[in-house]
Amino acid sequence: MAILAISANTSWYIYNFRKNTILSLMEKGYKVVVIAPVDKYSEKLTELGCELIHIDIDQGGTNPITDIKTFFDFYRIYKRKNIDVVLNFTPKNNIYSTLAAHFNNTKSINNIAGLGILFVNESITSKVARFLYKISQSKASKLFFQNEDDRQLFLEKKITSTVPTDRLPGSGVDLSRFTLTLAPDDGKVRFLLIARMLYDKGIQQYIDSARSLKKKYGVNVELSLLGFLDVNNPSAVSTAEMNSWVDEGIVNYLGVSDNVEQEIAKVDCMVLPSFYREGVPKSLLEAGAMGKPIVTTDNVGCRETVDDGINGYLCQPRSSDSLTEKLDVIINMTHVQRLEMGEKSREKIKNEFDEKIVINKYLAAVDVCIKNKMEKL
After folding, report:
1. Is 15 left (phi over 0), alpha (psi -120 to 50) or beta?
2. So where are the chain's domains?
3. pLDDT tens digits, residue range 75-121?
4. Superfamily of domain 189-352
5. For residue range 343-358, what is the model confidence (pLDDT) as tens digits?
6. Superfamily of segment(s) 3-172+354-376
7. pTM over cut 0.85
């Protein structure tokens, strides 16, 4: 029996984004090992039938000593476990797990799920990270990208020129879980933003728009946010900042949820004014699958989810005025018009972003890696 590993910087990510991939791999007869920091989702992963191995990863840190330790921890795991193929997700795993796997004859299949601030900033940290990407990704067996912009950037900068690349439709969406759900027709227009609470995700622009729209429409509009606060990131929104906006009466903060479909079901429109280099935002895929119009930025990763004017609108990155203008259009639609636009979202997601497309590409890539490894024995 071939042994596969799945590696990411949180167990939460693997459970919430890759559970069905794990189940499909096990159905094919593979043993699956999860390599990630232990958190409250680790038990859920072991309940699926995985072996879980804890590893320390400082996902937002820049201490080279900590990262070197992470590399050697990966190295020891691959040396001990005799893993055939690893599926890597999230930046530091793509770098350090790939390098460690290479020295232990473990094949790596990497998912470049958005390049975040690393390919926007010109800081020393970003330059070092890009250098590490260039060294490590040449050791992978396959690179998956979530949008064509990122794939072309890697090719143009020669970060990878010898490794096969392919584009995935984001991380896909489970269409059996996220089903068409009509918003209530009660005279109130509800917006929702789901993301890690980072200013790079356009949180300030959303707050600015909320302040303007609440002043104009009062109780007839409702703007909410859902996602982790105080994350380990220089762009993080603090709990105190969020509380100040809630106290001002312009937004609702819904905390975090394992059942986001319950919150998406209630709203008329999903919003994500991100200027971060996204892969393809999961929240937009899930909302589109549930038949919600989308307002997001004309930005890498985000624009893939919207046919402008058909299933939503694209606004200018970093522009509160542009975002407010698009949300105002949604507010002034009839309820039926919003539902019709939402149906176009469902159709687009069904045709382009079904999770089964993603899983089948992974299964095919794993089969190739296993076959190549067997041929060399």
Report:
1. alpha
2. 3-172+354-376, 189-352
3. 999 999 999 999 999 999 999 999 999 999 999 999 998 675 566 56
4. Glycogen Phosphorylase B; (3.40.50.2000)
5. 999 999 999 999 999 9
6. Glycogen Phosphorylase B; (3.40.50.2000)
7. yes
